[in-house]
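Students often ask what a holo structure prediction actually looks like on paper. The answer is less mysterious than it sounds. You provide the chain, you provide the ligand, and the output is a string of discrete structure tokens encoding the 3D arrangement of the protein together with heme C.
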Amino acid sequence: MEPVNNPNIPSTVSTPAEDHVNATNPTGMNNTALTKGKTIWSTSCIKCHASYHPNTRTMAEWKPILKTMTKKAKLNAEEIQHLDVFFEHFAKNEGWQ
Ligand code: HEC
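The corresponding structure tokens follow.
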């Protein structure tokens, strides 16, 4: 397991409580996916424009955008899954930011 206070998580994002990170949930969230998702976001999602922080939108707002943008970024299925975990974790109103 990666430490919860992973320094790669952007400083504008608060560190999720450990019990949430470790919680079993339907998205299959875990620290590895979270860290990989963050890396994808901070590399692939800034190629064409400035980065849009996950907490600027709710997950409901993000879903259609991510559908388009993951295609633009040419992400594979696994990368999309990791990115989804990252966004679900840090999107607005997700309860643990
Ligand atoms: C190949 C270039 C490219 C890549 C890679 C890319 N985008 Fe975009 N993005 C665009 C363009 C062009 C627009 C503006 C026009 C549009 O909506 O198609 C945009 C717009 C956006 C918007 C604003 C949409 C709105 O309706 O307000 C968001 C948010 C966004 N991108 C997020 C992302 C994320 C997250 C990723 C990574 C998965 C990403 N983008 C990767 C080209 C890209």
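Confidence is low (pLDDT under 50) at residues 1-28.
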